[in-house]
Amino acid sequence: MDKRVAIVGAGISGLLACKYAAARGFTPAVFEAQDHVGGVWNHTIESTRLQNARPTFEFSDFPWPSSVEDMFPTNFQVLDYLQSYAHHFGLLPYIKFNSKVISIDYVGDRIRSWDLWGKAFGCQGNWILKVIHTKDNFTKEYEAEFVIICTGWEIQWFPKYSKVWSWIWGRDIFRQSVAFNGLISSGENEWRL
Ligand SMILES: Cc1cc2nc3c(=O)[nH]c(=O)nc-3n(C[C@H](O)[C@H](O)[C@H](O)COP(=O)(O)OP(=O)(O)OC[C@H]3O[C@@H](n4cnc5c(N)ncnc54)[C@H](O)[C@@H]3O)c2cc1C
């Protein structure tokens, strides 16, 4: 069975999700509304710098280049670092740029696959993502066994998550762990990063 993981967003969270999904043998497809990786680091004002110290914003398997000596790198250096990560680990072929997800629906019974994360599993249903390919101006539906939402705080990018919203917030329905980058909800506990 082809274990497909749809990942929405190619900021730092989406890049990490893509890398580790691929490493575990899943088939990731990253949908990115814009035409580049790096998310918010493409849109910061010029004076922006990393607010936390560089060692606390470092991939465990991809150190900052030695040319970056400042403890608080500039926005350009951060963006360059994220782009280099994507190139280094060969993530670009997985990313569909100019591809904005406009809805996500789950078709099938409740998800049981989470219990089997990382193992061979059978799915009760599929996620259906409707995507607008903005450059070529057409809409297409994609299916996946898993969806990882990595849209940062720009939740307004999603006009409608259809059933996903009620499942995330309706924990009586959706009891498994939900990672919504920035916000993690698991059963009764909920906390923000
Ligand atoms: C000005 C500023 C300064 C910051 N400084 C720091 C800092 O110093 N240290 C720190 O740790 N964090 C900082 N942050 C937080 C920042 O959000 C994180 O560093 C990190 O970029 C978040 O990555 P992300 O992948 O979760 O989200 P993002 O970087 O926001 O990426 C989300 C991606 O999802 C895409 N997307 C959204 N909706 C859709 C859709 N419907 N379909 C397809 N694609 C979609 C977007 O185009 C974007 O590329 C800062 C944020 C801002 C705005």
Radius of gyration: 17 Å
Strands ordered across the widest β-sheet: 3-2-1-7
* CATH architecture label: 3-Layer(bba) Sandwich
The CATH superfamily is identified as FAD/NAD(P)-binding domain
The distinct ligands, each listed once, are: flavin-adenine dinucleotide
Q: How far is it from the N-terminal to the C-terminal residue, by CA?
A: 34 Å
Strand content: 25-35%
CATH topology heading: FAD/NAD(P)-binding domain
CATH class: Alpha Beta
Number of DSSP E strands? 10
Main pleated-sheet profile: 4 strands, parallel
Low-confidence stretches: 165-193
Helicity, in percent? 10-25%
Order of helices and strands: EHEHEEEEEHEEE
Walk me through this protein's architecture.
- With 193 residues, the protein is of the alpha/beta class.
- The protein has a single domain, classed as 3-Layer(bba) Sandwich (FAD/NAD(P)-binding domain).
- It is 17% helix and 28% strand.
- The chain contains three helices and ten strands, in the order βαβαβββββαβββ.
- It has helices at residues 12-23, 75-88, 163-169, and strands spanning 4-8, 27-31, 95-96, 99-108, 125-133, 138-144, 146-149, 177-180, 183-186, 189-192.
- A four-stranded parallel beta sheet has the order 3-2-1-7, covered by helices on one side. The protein has a three-stranded antiparallel beta sheet with strand order 4-5-6, with no helix packed on it.
- Strand 8 (177-180) and strand 9 form a beta hairpin.
- It is globular, with a radius of gyration of 17 Å.
- The protein starts with a strand and ends with a strand.
- The model is unreliable at 165-193 (pLDDT under 50).
- Bound molecules: flavin-adenine dinucleotide (FAD).
- Flavin-adenine dinucleotide is lined by residues 8-14, 31-34, 39-41, 44, 48, 50-52, 57, 100-101, 150-152, 154, 157-158, 181.
- Keywords: FAD, Flavoprotein, Monooxygenase, Oxidoreductase.
- GO terms for molecular function: flavin adenine dinucleotide binding; N,N-dimethylaniline monooxygenase activity; NADP binding.
- It comes from Salvia splendens (Scarlet sage).
- Belongs to the FMO family.
- It is an enzyme of class 1 (oxidoreductase).
